[in-house]
Amino acid sequence: MAFEGLAERLQGTINKIKGKGKVNEQDVKEMMREVRFALIEADVNLKVVKTFIKKVSERAVGQDVMKSLTPGQQVIKIVKDELTNLMGGEQSPIKFATKPPTVIMMVGLQGAGKTTTTGKLANVLRKKYNRKPLLVAADVYRPAAVQQLQTLGKQLSLPVFALGTDISPVEIVRQALEKAKEEHHDVVLVDTAGRLHIDENLMQELKDIRGLKEPDEVFLVVDAMTGQDAVNVAESFNEAVGITGVILTKLDGDTRGGAALSIRSVTEKPIKFVGMGEKMDALEQFHPERMASRILGMGDVMTLIEKAQATVDEDKARELEEKFKTQSFTLDDFLDQMSQVKKLGPLDEILKMLPGANKIKGLENAKIDDKQIGHIEAIILSMTPAEKTNPEIINASRRKRIAKGSGSSVQEVNRLIKQFDDMKKMMKQMTGMAQKGKKKMKLP
Ligand code: GDP
Where are the domains of the chain? Predict the structure, then answer.
């Protein structure tokens, strides 16, 4: 997981100071020494570390903190505030043109994830902002980049403007802009050429594309795994072409966090999005406060709720809730629920968004893999409608038949039925508790 080492060290430091009734300058000094080590180890830029420590120390030894009833908590709040500030403070929205189309240029080095992110961003623009994007394949140098974008376009059912690789990128973009006008696309997303290293020709080409029509956004796509190198790349691109924001990719990997924590301070450009996986829906808006909260082990419930809202079908959720209450939940519903949870992403990633979840041991085993769900699905689909509604009728011979029909073992069928029974029991208890609670509230 990203930030794992940093999170662990910072949380360890925080736990030491958390409950202290009194905090003196020496305590703060010691804490800051540990925080400094943690940040340096996470590959955060040295200058950034220095300024950060200075700011936190100054605020933490202030009168208000020392005299407060919960100084430990206050210090932690300051660390969180300053971590948030370090990453830009507020979430930075996309800037759209007042007169469409909005032009977004995607720039970056080869392999950073530029083409993939172009597809993901188009998906976000359509889903979240209701836009009608046109993707432009202007990376004519990397073998197969044009084809890759076309494939992504097909997958997303979004149009891709491509003219092959023999025409200059500037000409491609010029024609794409015309086409966007004709076909009323309100956003044009240009996948420009990456290179292995920053070079003059590349920068000139990007400047030429810029010259066609001033882009509303120039997003630099950088690989978070490259740590401080990502910061250097961002500085160079910013000086040469001018960028308006950064998209950090591969934050789902085990990056130490240096890039995320340094890039904003060094370049003064906001991180707008983060890539959290290879799939087309794995792009999240970057919220500095939520990220700080995650790093400090305080969870990220807001993102979790948004994820749930975006992926879980609300009508279905309401229907399930009703079934919980009336205890008319069947194995069909069980299957439905499993596939909804699956849509949220890997279970261990979801659990990590809950406050304190980092302390749960063995979380890495909490994976529901696709194979397992496929198996459960096969078992349930091999049952008759009567069995699905009334699993208590499933006797030994029925279990054998179901196992055979679904290509699984009788033990697996048993396990599933037990899981379902346990869940029903738990629901019964929970609804019972909720009803008792309601009655209590009504008492004078
Ligand atoms: P480009 O050369 O910059 O256009 O890079 P690509 O878009 O081809 O991406 C390079 C590799 O990184 C591909 O294998 C992508 O699937 C992968 N990739 C891109 N973004 C992410 C991300 O957020 N997480 C992970 N795990 N992989 C990513």
Answer: 4-86, 102-298, 308-442
